[in-house]
Every structure is written in structure tokens, then in C-alpha cells.
Design brief:
The protein is of the alpha+beta class and 212 residues long. 40% of the residues lie in helices and 25% in strands. It is built from six helices and nine strands. It has a three-stranded antiparallel beta sheet with strand order 1-3-2. A three-stranded mixed beta sheet has the order 4-5-6, sandwiched between helices. Helix 2 (59-73) packs across helix 4 (108-125) and helix 5 crosses helix 6. The longest helix has 23 residues, at 138-160. The radius of gyration is 26 Å and the shape is elongated. The model has no long low-confidence stretch (mean pLDDT 89).
């Protein structure tokens, strides 16, 4: 957690200024009056400001508490929850004795947990934070398997000189494919279809916009 000490003319003035500065509500923090201020003699000699210590919960701690609370509500079997920060994104790593339940079919349960946690923490923090939730490294394994497949397809496209269309993919996975393929100067990608699960086409750089 984070502690901040502020000084001012009175308790109410210091708290009001702190709330305005941090854009917070009273429920968003705790505070402790370290020293009551005094006006001193004639309001000048020996005057002391009011000193208050404000306590702000650490975001990572909040995320961990939210995650554990949610897992208990859905009877999710877990052994530990770890939260790390990288590139301004919070990564929630859940270790579980029953990962299948928390992942769900086509990772729908895992995506739902991630969606709920994003809503909970953003409502609490009153700002847009990004959380990525994984269980026992599932997402990383899926990403590696997807990229291995994309690499194989990319090689075929270059050898044959013809485009290949991938199976329908979720938006996040389509983005992974686009970013991976764009590093190859001989290839490019395009998206076809409608709805949430569109398809990515990998084609030679000089090919027409017609998937095969």
C-alpha cells in the first residue's frame, strides 16, 4: 500500500484538498491524523499545520483480493494468485489444482473471469486499467501453439505463392497473428468475415486481395 503525508490548515481542508488532487471519494482511502494543527499566539507565533497520513491500497493487492474473492464465489479450486506488472498491464497468474474448470470450453470461463476482474478493478480505481488473467500458463501455451501453426502456414504461403485462410479466431488471437506476420517482409494479412470470430488471411505481399 501507499502512504502519503499532507499538511494544511485543518483536518477538513487537508482531506478536501487531497481528494481533489487525487480525484478520490472518502471510501477510496484511509487516513490518520498525525498532528492536530494549532493557530499559535495571535495566529502567528508557534502556529503548527495539521498533518495527516493518507493510506492508499496498492492496486496489485486489490487485484489479488478481488481475484481470490471471485474464485471463492464460483468455487474455483486454486492454490495461489500472483499479480505482476509489465508495460502498464497487470498480469494475474492463477495456480490451480483443477485448471480445466477455471479455463472452461474454448477458454470461455477464463475470459469471463478476466472480464469481471477488469470491471471490478476499473470501477474501484476509477480509471482504465488492463488485466490479463491466466491459469497455469494456459494462454502462453495456446499462444505458442498458434504462432507455431502460423509459422507453418506462412512458410506454405511463401512456397506456394498462394494465400491461406485460417480458422475463425477471437479478436485477441487475430491481433497476435497480424503482429507476427507483419514482421515478415514477404507476407501480409487481411481480415474477412463478420461477427466476433472473423478469419485472418495470410497472403504474399504482392498478391491480389482475393483469399484462396
Amino acid at each position: 500500500m501507499q502512504t502519503i503525508i499532507k499538511e494544511g490548515k485543518s483536518t477538513s481542508a487537508v482531506i478536501a484538498e487531497f481528494m481533489k488532487e487525487k480525484n478520490l471519494e472518502l471510501d477510496d482511502f484511509k487516513f490518520e491524523v498525525i498532528e492536530e494543527g494549532s493557530k499559535g499566539l495571535f495566529g502567528l507565533i508557534g502556529a503548527k499545520p495539521t498533518r495527516i497520513k493518507f493510506i492508499l491500497p496498492d492496486v496489485a493487492e486489490q487485484i489479488k483480493e478481488f481475484t481470490e474473492g471471485l474464485l471463492k464465489k464460483i468455487n474455483g479450486n486454486y492454490t495461489s494468485v500472483e499479480v505482476a506488472i509489465k508495460d502498464k498491464k497487470y498480469y494475474v497468474d492463477i495456480k490451480s489444482g483443477d485448471p480445466g474448470f477455471l479455463i472452461g470450453k474454448e477458454a470461455k470461463m477464463l475470459d469471463s473471469i478476466q472480464h469481471l476482474l477488469n470491471q471490478m478493478i476499473n470501477k474501484q480505481e476509477k480509471k482504465k486499467l488492463k488485466l490479463r488473467v491466466d491459469v497455469d500458463g494456459y494462454r502462453e501455451r495456446r499462444k505458442k501453439a498458434l504462432l507455431d501453426k502460423v509459422q507453418d502456414i506462412s512458410d506454405k504461403v511463401k512456397n506456394r505463392g498462394k494465400s491461406i485462410t485460417l480458422e475463425p479466431l477471437h479478436a485477441a488471437n487475430r491481433r497476435v497473428v497480424h503482429q507476427f506476420v507483419e514482421k515478415d517482409s514477404e507476407l501480409r494479412t487481411m481480415t474477412i468475415g463478420e461477427g466476433e470470430y472473423k478469419r485472418v488471411v495470410i497472403l504474399p505481399k504482392t498478391a491480389e486481395n482475393e483469399p484462396v
